[in-house]
Design brief:
By secondary structure, the protein is α+β, with helices and mostly antiparallel strands. The protein folds into two domains: about 130 residues, Uridine Diphospho-n-acetylenolpyruvylglucosamine Reductase, domain 3 (2-Layer Sandwich); about 110 residues, CO dehydrogenase flavoprotein, C-terminal domain (Enolase-like, domain 1, 2-Layer Sandwich). About 30% of the residues lie in helices and about 25% in strands. It contains eleven helices and 14 strands. The strands form four sheets. The protein has a five-stranded antiparallel beta sheet. Helix 5 runs antiparallel to helix 8 and helix 9 runs antiparallel to helix 10.
Length: about 300
């Protein structure tokens, strides 16, 4: 039995959205396919009539500076991010996260857009992007413009946290909206006196056997001014049913020096806010709550030292 009946490979975003409007349904976009094809084969995804391959759309494969932001196209393979100098300079947490996704062969085809669209609360790329305060660019065709002669594409930028509804469910309108890419704000210049610096870090705990999935992961973006945390963002997965920002821990550390006392206060705030989940194949909620202390300390100390 075929997993799909129609395969379309548009060359432009306009052609892709034409396909979204006209192709036989149900339909789904595909890039690397490392999640989608397995889900189809194993019956975890509803049947698909049409696959729309977005890997030939130039805009979705760009990785470039745009003003004070780094743009990463949704169809950029994660291994390209790992080896890209701009990503290494401005989004170190994302580079570290992408370098841990599956194995080398998978990283050569798996895309950042697919990692995010799968909407898992501990997806490595997703957790890193959340800490980096990314926004997603979404393309759609408004209902009034779905007649071919009147069709026009609308794009909007969406706060990253608003992309997720529950485990495995994004806020994207299935078969109608497409992730174009992600905008990550960057610190292009330092103050004249060079009294503050920005850094980020991502690490995870995983089982050692084979291509391991994360038991727990954590990303921190930190802005340090002399010996004080001027600002920071902390993301932990899976800290809730959707990708989780530890905002209470952030509030505890903002304006403080990182030391044992402030770390313990931040950890208590994180544990009070997080809702760790039990996974039969990975770990219990109690185990995750037990091990988060060491992971959180390791990540935030690394970010602190990098910004020093």
């Amino acid at each position: 039995m075929n997993l799909w009946q129609n395969y379309i490979r548009p060359n432009t975003l306009s052609e892709a959205m034409d396909a979204f409007a006209q192709a036989p349904r149900p339909l789904a976009p595909i890039a690397g396919g490392t999640d989608l094809l397995l889900d189809l084969e194993q019956g975890r995804h509803s049947p698909i009539q049409t696959l729309i391959d977005v890997t030939s759309i130039a805009e979705l494969t760009l990785l470039e500076l745009r003003g004070d932001e780094l743009f990463i196209g949704a169809a950029v393979p994660v291994n390209r991010i790992v080896h890209n100098p701009l990503a290494a300079q401005h989004t170190q947490a994302l580079v570290e996260a992408c370098d841990l996704i599956a194995g080398p062969q998978v990283r050569n085809v798996a895309t950042l857009g697919g990692n995010v669209a799968h909407a898992l609360p501990a997806a490595d790329g997703t957790i890193a992007l959340l800490a980096l305060n990314a926004e997603a660019e979404i393309a759609s065709v408004p209902i009034a413009g779905r007649v071919a002669a009147e069709r026009r594409i609308e794009t909007k930028r969406v706060s990253f946290k608003d992309l997720f509804l529950r485990p495995g469910k994004s806020s994207l309108q299935h078969g109608e909206e497409l992730i174009v890419g992600f905008y990550v704000p960057i610190q292009k210049t330092l103050m004249v006196a060079k009294t503050f610096r920005v850094s980020s870090c991502f690490k995870r705990i995983m089982r050692p056997q084979g291509v391991a999935l994360p038991i727990l992961n954590c990303a921190v973006w930190l802005e340090r001014e002399n010996n004080v945390i001027k600002d920071l963002r902390i993301a932990v997965g899976p800290g809730a049913g959707t990708p989780f920002r530890a905002t209470r821990a952030e509030d505890t550390l903002r304006g403080q020096t990182l030391n044992e006392t402030t770390f313990e206060s931040a950890l208590a705030a994180l544990l009070a806010q997080a809702q760790f989940r039990t996974s039969a194949r990975r770990a219990s909620a109690d185990y995750r709550q037990h091990i988060v202390s060491g992971l959180f300390k390791d990540v935030i100390e690394s970010a602190w030292e990098r910004a020093g």
